Structures are given as structure tokens and as C-alpha cells.
């Protein structure tokens, strides 16, 4: 049996599994739902013959995040290949009930159908396809699905780093771009939280005794937005600005949350330093700042290893009649963290999909079997 036929043979199971996963709410930190989807995936990997375990993860405060599913299978060769995906979505509880999984016009819809439930199931289907065809030239094939990618992989970073350092190649299962492109690089991203603390006072009787945190926040917002354009590729966005509780009180506290992104490491680091410095500048007398950088994820600029993986993917695609191109994108993912550990990485190896993080999110069902075959063929090629 060839890989394309094997992928089509696995397609009915893929579609049935996709419906089950999408119909379970598994937003980041929805531990109940994340346990349910992890349990399903673990059962399916065990049925496929993989040695599987669930790894409970927690954030820095000790709060539970759900379980990572880590499934392994030994082959006849020497090279280790990691397939990386995630189980969490960005949607709140109740979303699956309000807009459950459905198929319409050759596309599947529902929360997380593309990002990344369609991707993780493509990884499992690729493994099953390889086994159906007796292609076990890999030394070890590892499938990892984490519960916290959408919040910066705050609990899974150590696990990702360890697995990256144990593997020869990392293939990431975020879905392909809408035009079918694989992903060869991603911007780095960090959320910077700035808490401004001033002094409250009666706004009508003695405003001069106050230190206006909201005014400082407004001035800081302008200063931060003006950083856009200072470095090529860097974007700075004050996405959250909160201050005050009552109109007749000089605000004692204000909070900003800033999104900063860049596709170049040096520019990313310069921007983080500039934002921190700007936050500490005295913009209103009596107002001080506390700055915290949340889950900074470095840019993945691509590498010679990534270029070689693209070349091999194109060769496999030619054999399977699947056109292959690759492009960089602005969103970050676990590929950034894996690449930072030094392993060659290629991303976007799930099926074709789009409108991630929205109610219109979709997955192109006609792309599933060809992309599963492409992934399986790439694993077989790099393992050899």
C-alpha cells in the first residue's frame, strides 16, 4: 500500500475523531475539557500501538493547565522525529455547544477545527499511515500534544526544550496557510504587563493630592505606540488599557498589556528593552511602574536545517502530486521554542485551514488525506 492510499484509508476515522474533539470545549485553562480531549487522544494513540503517557502540567503559580499527551513508537532506524501539536483552543466554555462541529461544502467548522485539533489528528493519521505501509525507518517517532500553546506554553516549555534536544527533526502540526503554504519562520512575541501605581484623591475637593495613574497610562500608551516603525519588522500594540473605578476619584492604579512582535531576534530584544525603559520614565509625578514580561517567545528566523526540510518536503510533494511552498508568518507557536533549542524545524504540516481564533474557523477536508500523506512521506524521508 502506498502512503496516499493509506492516508485515504484513515480518512473516515480522522473525520469521526475530529468531530469528537471539536465538540469538546478545551480552551486554555479549561482543565476539565482538556482532560477529556487528552484522554481521547491517548486512547487513540495506544490503539495505534504507541506507548503513551499523560504528563500533568502547571503554571508558575502551581495552577493546573491540563495534561500533555506524549506518545512514542520505536522503528528500525536511528533518527528521532518529533511531531508537535496542541490541544487547547482560544474559545470559552459553551462554544462547542453553541456552534458544534459541522461539515458544509467540503469544509469542516467548529472551535479548534483548524487550530489545532485538525493538526494533531493529522499527526496521528500520518503515523497510522506509515505503520499500514510498513515504513518504520525512523529510530523513534514521537507525537506530543500540549494543553497550553495558546497562552504561551507557560507550563510546557521545559518539556518542549527537553524533547527538542533529544530529537533530530521537529515537524510541527499547525495547519497550513489558507493558500497551502507550509511555515518556515514565525515572529517572536511577548506580552508586557505594566502596572502603574499612583495615589487616590477626591477629584473635586483635593485633586492636587492625587497622582493620576490613568493620565500616566495615557501618556505611556502614546509613547509605546510611537515605537512602531523604529525597527524593521517590529510591531507594538497596547491592546489593554484599564484605569480607575469611579469618576470622582483620581485613579490610583492603571494597567497596560502590550503585544510586541518581531521576526528578528536583535530587534525583538531592543524593543523589549525600550518598552521597559519607557514604562519606567516618570510621566506623572508620584506614579511608579511595575513591569513584567509574560511568556516571551523568541523569533524563529528559519535555518539551514529548515531550508533542507523544505527541499525534502518539495521532493515528497512532487512524488505525491501535492504542491509545496513555504512562507514566514506573524503568529508564533511552539515551533519558535523548538527552534530555539537548535533542532531543525518545519511547521504548517497539518491540513489546509483558515480564520483561526474566530467563529468562521474552517478546515478544508479535501486537503486532509494529501497532507497526511505528505507528512508521512516527509517523516519517512528525514528518518532515512
Question: What distinguishing features does this structure have?
Answer:
384 residues; alpha/beta; Aminopeptidase; Alpha-Beta Plaits; six-stranded mixed beta sheet; 36% helix; 27% strand
The averaged pLDDT comes out at 97
Class from helix and strand fractions: alpha/beta
CATH architecture of the largest domain: 3-Layer(aba) Sandwich
3D shape: elongated
Q: Bin the strand percentage.
A: 25-35%
Q: How many domains is the backbone divided into?
A: 2
Helix proportion: 25-40%
Q: SSE order, as H and E?
A: HHEEEHEEHEHEEEEHEEHEHEHEEEH
Which helices and strands appear, and what pairs or packs with what?
Layout: H1 3-22, H2 31-47, E1 51-58, E2 64-74, E3 80-86, H3 95-98, E4 102-104, E5 107-109, H4 113-132, E6 140-146, H5 157-166, E7 169-172, E8 175-176, E9 182-186, E10 188-197, H6 213-225, E11 235-243, E12 253-262, H7 265-280, E13 288-297, H8 304-320, E14 326-329, H9 334-340, E15 345-346, E16 350-354, E17 362-364, H10 368-383
Parallel strand pairs: 3-6, 3-7, 7-15, 8-16, 9-14
Antiparallel strand pairs: 1-2, 2-6, 4-5, 5-17, 10-12, 10-13, 11-12, 16-17
Helix pairs in contact: 1-4, 1-10, 4-10, 5-9, 8-10
